[in-house]
Amino acid sequence: MNIAQVDYDGLIPNNVGLGQDLRVKHALEKWHPGYINWWNDMGPEGFQDSLVYLRTAISVDPKGWAKFDYVRMPEYRWGVLLAPQHEGRKIPFGMHKGEDAWQEVPGEYRAMLRRLVVIQGDTEPASVEQQRYLGKTAPSLYDMRNLFQVNVEEGRHLWAMVYLLQKYFGTDGREEAEALLQRRSGHADTPRMLGAFNEKTPDWLSFFMFTYFTDRDGKMQLEALAQSGFDPLSRTCRFMLTEEAHHMFVGETGVTRVVQRTCEAMKAAGISDPNNIEAVRKLGVIDLPTIQKKANMHFSLTLDLFGNEISTNAANAFHAGLKGRYREDRLKDDHKLESGTYPVLRLIDGKIQNEDSPALSALNMRLRDDYVADANIGVGRWNKVIAEHGIPFEIKLPHVAFHRHIGEFTSIKADVNGNLLGDAEWEKRKAEFLPSDSDREFIESLMQPQFEPNKFAGWIAPPRVGIDNKPGDFEYVKIADA
Ligand SMILES: [Fe+2]
Ligand SMILES: [Fe+2]
Fold this sequence. Notes:
Blueprint: H1 22-42, E1 51-57, E2 66-72, H2 110-130, H3 141-168, H4 170-182, H5 204-226, H6 231-269, H7 277-282, H8 288-303, H9 312-319, E3 341-348, E4 351-358, H10 363-388, E5 413-414, E6 420-421, H11 423-433, H12 437-446, E7 477-478
Antiparallel strand pairs: 1-2, 1-7, 3-4, 5-6
Helix pairs in contact: 1-3, 1-4, 2-3, 2-4, 3-4, 3-6, 5-6, 5-8, 5-10, 6-10
The protein binds fe (ii) ion (2 copies).
């Protein structure tokens, strides 16, 4: 069988030869009903019978892996898709650098590896749970379709991680696969594992910010795991990254279209002061300072996902050859990091300052720095739209010490520029930096559904091009009568 081709004959589409791997096939078939139950309980609320114009992978080669068609979401062909194996691949970093990549789990790293897979796996269903009510307030059928595409692909990412657990981790892998269906985003007793995945995604601006900022954390983690010496993990992540790109596209263009609509409305009304919030809101669009506050919130929550700046776990995972750096294969150094330092922003004597730390311990910090640089690119594009309309406003990512709940800056309060604030001053000023109840209420008031083809809610501009080059009036979702 050509590895690029996907076998769609059985219950579980795959390019991993499940037909010849009966133990894993049966394990996944046993897991499947629980997954479908989870999807029906926790997936998009209210549109399960609607026909959605979705892409499905039919091959994993770089060209033409996506096929578009109308699908009811519960009938989406979730499957196990790995990028092709590279013949003779070597472990690219750590103490085993240069040895043959592992095709089986190395016994001494079993627990560490399982934990990496479970943590990644847990984020995938979490985001589906967080986004489950958004269909009802979609600003257009185009946006609704994009939401559902993200949702089914996050579901597939769960499949990707569950395949690894079922195939390589025996009984405890099976138990972990079950537990991934039991935890619930935001649940008091059985929450998802990471903080940002227990927050609410209550409105569409949050959704766009989430897919821009938080899915981008996913990209960074997947890039680091795609370097793994454990080859099946590397191959899984490489394919997931092709899907992840669309999620960040949805976020970046979503925010761009919100910004654009705001700027257009301001210009048409002759409002040049972006801080005249009341006047801008009267136009039925989201004022730029509120968009900035939303960005502040989602960016800071996402930074927490990178963990402690100084981390023994990260050092161990790198040293063992399990989790690399962002684009490890393009870096020019010894790929062992046993000597060398990396500057880490720390709180020293009550001041935020850089300190050189052992490079191996600073890998979370390094990945976070790479993330911040990557996240800044799209922000530049948003600002270009604002500048084109001649409005004096610039969206800026807040300082990394702002609004943190994990790591070096947990114990302090800082403003968006990194100036330390006392508790009382923080309380007094936090509505300057983060969405307030009234900001949230205003955004919520705009979230009126727009389900007619070629129409868009008033607070967001239409996209420049359709999905799969479809024309503007294309019916991306055929909504079934309730
Ligand atoms: Fe994902
Ligand atoms: Fe994603």
